[in-house]
Design a protein that fits this description.
The protein is mostly helical. Helices cover about 65% and strands about 5% of the residues. The protein has 2 helices and 2 strands, in the order ββαα. Bound molecules: zinc ion (ZN).
Amino acid sequence: MAITRCPKCAKSISDKHKQCPHCGSSISELNDEQVLQLQREQRIKKRQMFMNHSFLALILFLGGFFCLYFLQPQEETLEWYAYTIAIGVGCIWYLINRIILVSLKKKK
Ligand SMILES: [Zn+2]
């Protein structure tokens, strides 16, 4: 018995299953081309999600940066901490998303 992934919902299932126990789609009815097509669609959807995330992270980073630069709050006030954290989180979040996107591209 081997573990494969459902081509529709991408959850791990046994290759003995004729139907996915998670989403109920019948696997045996799909031919190889349809499976490949579904996997491709899933990869694109996944990449799109990480693209959106990295975009949000970039906005967070830039927002924090501009607020800190233009509003110039006093150090160690609540605003200062908020903007600094926004920059830090945005930066790390963005980098993580970029790394995931690069690794997704390599898997192709
Ligand atoms: Zn499924």
